[in-house]
Design goal:
mainly alpha, elongated
């Protein structure tokens, strides 16, 4: 089950890393604006926004997506070096960090009409399935010992 958990959580990490990297590429290298602008505002409303407001949103977009990319890389490293080998600390670290991020994604989107709810639902579902597959072996194995990883075949 740990290998299946690692695969599902890696899909979460891969999608998260891809989306964050794509948004960073658009905003930094192509001098585009945050993709959140057209999700929340009509084009006529965007045209009336002060340039400092757009620059501020782009700044926050870069900060958020660079953090999301870094979290994804770190999570993938923890998944494939520790979780798959049955390290309990890796389970708890992934449960708390990714769980907090996924819950707060819905909280953050609520005031703007849940503009990216589709992405939030898909990523949260992958997280719940992935961490759920790791939960049983992690929580019910004998205390103090790493969980036996399934043989790679």
């Amino acid at each position: 089950m740990l290998r299946a958990s690692a695969i599902v959580l890696s899909i979460w990490g891969g999608i998260n890393l891809f989306l964050a990297s794509l948004i960073l590429t658009i905003v930094i290298f192509f001098h585009g604006n945050s993709p959140l602008l057209p999700m929340v505002f009509e084009s006529s409303e965007v045209a009336r926004l002060d340039a400092r407001v757009i620059a501020s949103l782009n700044c926050l977009t870069i900060l958020y997506n660079s953090s999301a990319a870094a979290l994804s890389v770190l999570a993938l490293f923890i998944i494939w070096t520790n979780l798959v080998n049955g390290r309990r600390w890796a389970f708890w670290a992934l449960l708390t960090t990714i769980g907090l991020v996924e819950m707060l994604a819905f909280v953050a989107s609520a005031p703007i009409g849940n503009a990216r709810w589709q992405v939030n639902v898909v990523l949260s579902a992958l997280y719940v399935v992935g961490i759920g597959l790791a939960a049983a072996p992690m929580l019910f194995a004998s205390k103090g010992k790493p969980v036996e990883a399934s043989p790679r075949g």
